[in-house]
Each structure stands twice: as structure tokens, then as C-alpha cells.
Amino acid sequence: MDRRFAVAVVIAAASLFTASRGSGQQRTLEPDLAKLADGKGLHIFNRSVSSFKDGTKTGLRLSEGADNGVAYLQGIELGNGTIELDIRGKDVQQQSFVGVAFHGVDDTTYDAVYFRPFNFRTDDQARRKRAVQYVSHPTYPWQKLRAEHPGEYEQPVTPAPDPNGWFHVRVVVASPQVSVFVADAKQPSLVVRQLSDRHTGRVGLWVGNNSGGDFANLKIVPTP
Residue 218 in contact with residue 58, Cβ under 8 Å? Predict the structure, then answer.
């Protein structure tokens, strides 16, 4: 990328982000997702975006559509660090895959952690074990991981959130390990070893086939 263009992108995106510095000199990025819904500051693949207000939450909605969709934050890359946010899907089987992409390159190359809310509280125990998923596209989609490594890259979420409600997510990337925490859990719902050899890349909001989703309160904390 031309250096002057890259600098311009970062400057343009800066007005949509709040940054603070705490102990250990960690820099927290807090994008204003509602403002980003006009498309400025996002690089969007295969979806449209809109803002919403739901009680005390304001944020960004990705539309439903066929195939996967991702909205990358422009000017932001993450190596190791934490991605924290609130997510809402819905309790409709095969129509709610919602999560985050990281170490991304484009619309087909990224690592992602996503959830299947319709599996959170189902009575089908096999499906319940498939509530949270790690993938590394394009080489390791869920189908390949489930067939070759059953039960390793997808796990249940305990306690199970309301499948139609908001749930809080914290993804800790400490390459090569990725840990996923839900709500205030002290123990992760999923711990995996990354399958890609990328050590940094773009961060985005992600939805799967036939899915849309709501996202709020995003925080990105790079590891110093």
C-alpha cells in the first residue's frame, strides 16, 4: 500500500476511535460502531451495514446474506492482544453465525472466532457442543476441522447465554494460542492453537452464511 494513502486512512479513521492508555502502557481502541455504520472507516465485504439503538446499547448491524461477510476496521491491525465486544444473534437454526475476524488479509483469508446462538440452549447435545467455533480461512473451514479434529475447534458455552439476547465476548490472541471467554467466565469456553502462520492482520466483525448480526461496545487492546 502507498505510504501516503495508508497514513491518510489512519488519520481519517482516527476521528471514529477513542484511544486510552492504562497500566502497562496498553492502548485501548474503542471504535464508535454507530458512526462507522455510514461506511467510512470500514472495508465491507458481502454485506451492508446500519446503525441501531437498543436501550443503552448503540452499535452496528451487519445485514443478512448468502455466504460469509466481514466488515474490517480501516487503519487497524492487531498482532497479539484482546478483542472484546457485545454480540447479538438469534435462535434460528443455520441462520445465525456471528463473531469476529482477526489476522485478516481480505474477504477470504483470516482467522475467526464465531458463535452459533441457536446451539446455545438446544436440547440436542451434539449441537450444544458446537456453540463456539474457531476457523482459519481459506485452508481450515469448519467442515474440515470438524471432520479431521472433532471437538477440538468447537465447544459448548457454559453457562449458555440467551440465544436471542446480547452476550459479551473476549477473544485473547496470544499467538499461537487463542482463548475465548463469554460473559464473566473465568475459564475460557474455547482454547485453540492457531492454524495460520500469520502473526498480524486486520480486525473485523464477521457473520456467516444466511446470517446478520448486531455488534456493540467493541474494544481492541494490543499487547505492548
Answer: no
